[in-house]
């Protein structure tokens, strides 16, 4: 939404969601390049569609400015679902959120490279505040998610899990002619998260980060959804439509939880 007039599009989004009788609207991160701006947009959308619920997690772009690692770990607002949950009224479903991270394992074809140095030099995430290395950060994510899933299991809840980063290798593209992209795979997510989710038989997973238009895919008992809108700017056009609202409506996916 970096290039969009939110004062104009948020009421349009709210009107469409209300017309579709949406009860919960989920955003898997990367709204803008500033956390405060992303949070403000979500809070405004929440006010517009209440009593329906809006929940979001932070993507790497939301983390680029005006937020620290410690800040991201806090329950900053009811709409911010990282390390939190939402019980869906009238159902046995619980929506769990965790921002997620990465541990370089998707770049296994280049194992042994200095991904941390490459990231600081070439990848946008090099500016993100964090007090630990990427692998340790991912270890903490997995520990957090394990606790979240155990609590849901004790409550006998069915889980819809939302994260930003990629949880399965099936969504990673390997090339023989693009060295940059193969290095960037290291920063896309972790297969360990997918294995953890599937070990708890999580029925539904939503994630973002990669912008190709994937259809829902089921592995074992777990169905994965990626509904990213993607970039539209002077350098990159990942849209199939010509305006934000049309593209956004096309990328929505409606689930009935009962």
Automatic annotation (TrEMBL):
It comes from the Bacteria. It holds the Pfam family Metallophos. Coiled coil: none annotated. Keywords: Hydrolase. Residues 18-212 form the Calcineurin-like phosphoesterase domain. The keyword 4Fe-4S does not apply. The keyword Transmembrane helix does not apply. NCBIfam families: acc_ester. GO terms for molecular function: hydrolase activity. This is Predicted phosphohydrolase.
């Amino acid at each position: 939404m970096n290039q969009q007039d939110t004062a104009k599009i948020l009421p349009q989004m709210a009107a469409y969601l209300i017309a579709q009788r949406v009860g919960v609207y989920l955003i898997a991160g990367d709204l803008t390049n500033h956390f405060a701006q992303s949070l403000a947009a979500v809070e405004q959308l929440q006010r517009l569609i209440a009593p329906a619920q809006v929940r979001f997690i932070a993507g790497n772009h939301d983390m680029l400015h005006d937020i620290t690692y410690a800040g991201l770990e806090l329950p900053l607002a009811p709409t911010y679902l990282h390390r939190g949950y939402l019980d869906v009224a009238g159902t046995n479903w619980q929506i769990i959120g965790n921002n997620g991270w990465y541990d370089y394992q998707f770049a296994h074809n280049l194992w042994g490279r200095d991904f941390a140095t490459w990231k600081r030099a070439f990848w946008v995430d090099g500016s993100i505040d964090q007090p630990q290395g990427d692998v340790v950060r991912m270890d903490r994510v997995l520990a957090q998610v394990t606790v979240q899933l155990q609590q849901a299991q004790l409550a006998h809840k069915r889980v819809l899990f939302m994260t930003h980063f990629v949880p399965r290798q099936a969504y990673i593209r390997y090339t023989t002619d693009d060295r940059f992209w193969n290095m960037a795979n290291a920063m896309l997510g972790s297969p360990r998260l997918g294995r953890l989710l599937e070990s708890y038989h999580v029925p539904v997973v939503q994630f973002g980060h990669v912008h190709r238009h994937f259809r829902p895919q089921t592995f074992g008992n777990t169905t994965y959804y990626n509904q990213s809108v993607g970039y539209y700017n002077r350098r990159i056009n990942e849209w199939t439509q010509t305006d934000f609202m049309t593209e956004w409506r096309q990328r929505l996916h409606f689930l009935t939880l009962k």
